[in-house]
């Protein structure tokens, strides 16, 4: 090969090498840019997805808040309806109370005189009844009169104590009770044990058990009993005082006319 041909071959080889080197640099530069662009795209996609996720989360929070507000609004409506019903009922109650107050005032005007009549009637009954613990019963009448004249006691309480006094008198009809008090005998007074069996019999016996009397409802006075009734009267006093077991008592009772 001639020198010229060798020189041409070297030049061609050098040109080809140079071209190949330039092409390799260009290819490397383009790949790096592509990779960089791909990375930016990926980061942009990630950021976009994060924004989408944030927007979704916010929308869910707003939706939950909206639902909560709707529920609160419904609850408030139900509560307001409930309060309105209560207010309406209270207004109706106030109207009814106003009417009742007017009726009560009218009732008071009628019940106060009635209570005074009831006390007078009770006092007359006690005085006409067997003298069962009469002093204590008449003292109760005086307390009733004091209560009726006390401005600090309301009408309902007055009426209650009057009815209570009537109940006490009613219970005497079924009671078996003994107590100690004085008895007027032979122009003087002696201590005796009284015993009453309902309103069937009222008896008295001296503390030494040697004498006994019964209340005669026909003559309204005390009548002395014979010695055959001393033991039965003593037993009745012991039973009434819960010092002996209850048993059949033999007591003097006036026959009905």
List the uncertain runs: 10-28
Tell me the radius of gyration: 58 Å
| Relative strand content | 5-15%
How many H/I helices?
A: 4
Give the distance, in angstroms, between the N- and C-terminal Cα atoms: 184 Å
**How can the largest sheet be summarized?**
5 strands, antiparallel
Order of helices and strands: HHHEEEEEH
Description:
The chain contains 4 helices and 5 strands; from the N terminus they run H-H-H-E-E-E-E-E-H. The chain is an alpha+beta fold and 257 residues long. Among the domains are: 80-174; 175-240, no CATH class. Strands 1-2-3-4-5 form a 5-stranded antiparallel sheet, covered by helices on one side. Strand 2 (188-197) and strand 3 form a beta hairpin. Helix 1 packs across helix 2 and helix 1 packs across helix 3 (155-171). It starts with a helix and ends in a 17-residue tail after the last helix. Keywords: Signal. Residues 1-28 form the signal peptide. This is DUF3450 domain-containing protein.
Keywords:
single chain; 257 residues; alpha+beta; five-stranded antiparallel beta sheet; elongated
Task: Please summarize what this structure is.
The protein contains four helices and five strands, in the order αααβββββα. By secondary structure, it is an alpha+beta fold. Among the domains are: 95 residues; 66 residues, no CATH class.
């Amino acid at each position: 090969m001639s020198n010229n041909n060798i020189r041409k071959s070297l030049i061609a080889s050098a040109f080809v090498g140079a071209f190949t080197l330039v092409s390799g640099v260009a290819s490397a530069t383009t790949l790096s840019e592509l990779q960089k662009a791909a990375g930016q795209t990926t980061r942009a996609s990630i950021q976009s997805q994060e924004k989408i996720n944030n927007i979704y989360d916010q929308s869910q929070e707003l939706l939950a808040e909206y639902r909560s507000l709707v529920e609160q609004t419904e609850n408030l409506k139900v509560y307001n309806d409930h309060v309105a019903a209560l207010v309406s009922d209270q207004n109706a109650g106030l109207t009814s109370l106003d009417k009742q107050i007017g009726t009560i005032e009218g009732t008071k005007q009628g019940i106060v005189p009635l209570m005074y009549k009831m006390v007078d009637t009770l006092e007359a009954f006690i005085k006409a009844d067997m003298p069962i613990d009469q002093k204590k019963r008449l003292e109760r009448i005086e307390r009733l009169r004091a209560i009726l004249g006390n401005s600090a006691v309301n009408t309902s309480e007055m009426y209650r104590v009057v009815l209570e006094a009537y109940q006490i008198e009613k219970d005497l009809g079924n009671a078996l009770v003994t107590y100690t008090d004085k008895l007027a005998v032979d122009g003087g007074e002696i201590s005796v044990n009284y015993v009453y069996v309902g309103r069937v019999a009222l008896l008295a016996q001296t503390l030494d058990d040697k004498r006994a009397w019964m209340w005669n409802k026909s003559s309204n006075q005390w009548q002395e009993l014979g010695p055959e009734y001393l033991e039965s009267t003593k037993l009745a006093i012991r039973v009434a005082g819960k010092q002996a077991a209850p048993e059949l008592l033999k007591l003097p009772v006036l026959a009905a006319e």
